[in-house]
């Protein structure tokens, strides 16, 4: 895993409480953050029913390609599963020391116990948008991205890749270690 021995990895299930926000860092990378509400379910043996327990809120931070994918895929209110490193951050407010739970996500996905989803590889490279606000905020209609066509099998607002060959070349370039910026001017890659 490459982390320190004392890292605590957790898996959370909950709902997104606000649309993900994406930030650009000074080094050109992007970070996406979101808030997750996770509510315990408690079984009451006397009444033989389930009840909501206490709700815990977590800040979730996503880096690199995960940041881009989360910004384009996850929306307010959606049920998700998050796996990552637990961090407890402290801060001072009004002279009082407080703590907040934060997760540095390594994986994020929709909770398929509560709905259906489809998988689509993102188009990478200098021509692909990092975060298309129109496609992200549109739940209905015909969101189009970089020449792609709306695909009825992917659901409302989803966009099919415009060029499958470009996606294969991007994967080959990634496997060969070709930097994304140099990929646009490189010769076609052989299989």
From TrEMBL:
Q: Which InterPro entries match?
A: NA-bd_OB-fold, Primosome_PriB/ssb, ssDNA-bd
Region described as Disordered: 113-152
Which GO molecular function terms does the record list?
DNA binding
Name a Pfam family for this protein. Answer: SSB
The record's listing under CDD domains reads: SSB_OBF (cd04496)
Q: Which residues form a coiled coil?
A: none
Keywords from UniProt, A to Z, are: DNA-binding
Quaternary state and interactors = Homotetramer.
> NCBIfam families in the record, alphabetically?
ssb (TIGR00621)
Q: What is this protein called?
A: Single-stranded DNA-binding protein
Organism of derivation: Sphaerisporangium dianthi
Q: Which gene encodes it?
A: ssb
């Amino acid at each position: 895993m490459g982390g320190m021995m004392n890292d605590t990895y957790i898996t959370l299930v909950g709902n997104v409480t606000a649309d993900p926000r994406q930030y650009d860092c000074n080094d050109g990378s992007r970070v996406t953050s979101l808030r997750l509400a996770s509510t315990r379910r408690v079984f009451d043996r006397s009444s033989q029913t389930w009840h909501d327990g206490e709700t815990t809120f977590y800040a979730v931070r996503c880096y690199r390609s995960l940041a881009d994918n989360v910004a384009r895929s996850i929306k307010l209110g959606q049920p998700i599963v998050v796996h990552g490193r637990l961090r407890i951050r402290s801060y001072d407010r009004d002279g009082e020391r407080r703590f907040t739970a934060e997760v540095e996500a390594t994986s994020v996905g929709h909770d398929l116990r509560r709905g259906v989803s489809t998988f689509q590889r993102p188009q990478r490279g200098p021509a692909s948008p990092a975060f298309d606000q129109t496609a992200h905020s549109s739940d209905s209609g015909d969101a189009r991205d970089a020449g792609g066509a709306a695909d009825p099998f992917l659901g409302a607002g989803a966009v099919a890749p415009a060029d499958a060959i470009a996606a294969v070349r991007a994967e080959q370039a990634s496997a060969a270690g070709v930097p994304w910026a140099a990929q646009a001017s490189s010769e076609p890659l052989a299989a």
